């Protein structure tokens, strides 16, 4: 699960349903501050395309989730520190150009 803790974004909407377990989803707000959301069994969350986020397990260290897609599944992630977006918000400009 360490791979999900690295801050990243997707170029498609992210929809997940928690089947079992719990943890914390951190998302960036428009001022680039973290917002922490506790997620547990039965929760569904949808993140719009281009939102930086990360996930970590809680003390139970267990999670079973399903990712739902609209259209063809896309599993590509863009890590914040290693991506090709040089400035905060540049990914939004990229998305606008590709839409």
Q: What name does the CATH topology carry?
A: Jelly Rolls
Quaternary form: single chain
Which consecutive residue ranges, at least 5 long each, have pLDDT under 50?
A: none
β-strand percent reads: 35-45%
The biggest sheet, with number of strands, parallel, antiparallel or mixed sense and barrel status, is: 5 strands, antiparallel
Query: What is the rounded Rg?
Result: 14 Å
Structural class: mainly beta
Principal-axis shape equals: globular
Order of helices and strands: HEEEEEEEH
Count of folded domains: 1
The number of strands is 7
Arithmetic mean of pLDDT: 83
Task: Give a structural overview.
It is built from 2 helices and 7 strands, in the order αβββββββα. The chain is mainly β. The radius of gyration is 14 Å and the shape is globular. The strands form 2 sheets. Strands 2, 3, 4, 5 and 6 form a 5-stranded antiparallel sheet that branches. The chain has a single domain, classed as Jelly Rolls. The chain starts with a helix and ends with a helix. InterPro entries: ARD, RmlC-like_jellyroll, RmlC_Cupin_sf. It is an enzyme of class 1 (oxidoreductase).
């Amino acid at each position: 699960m360490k791979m999900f803790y690295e801050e990243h974004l997707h170029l498609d909407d992210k929809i997940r349903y928690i089947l079992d377990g719990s943890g914390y989803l951190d998302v960036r707000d428009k001022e680039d501050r973290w917002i922490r959301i506790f997620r547990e069994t039965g929760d569904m969350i949808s993140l719009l395309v281009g939102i930086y986020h990360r996930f970590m397990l809680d003390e139970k260290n267990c999670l079973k989730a399903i990712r739902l897609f609209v259209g063809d599944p896309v599993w590509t992630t863009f890590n914040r520190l290693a991506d090709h977006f040089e400035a905060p918000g540049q990914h939004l400009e990229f998305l606008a150009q590709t839409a």
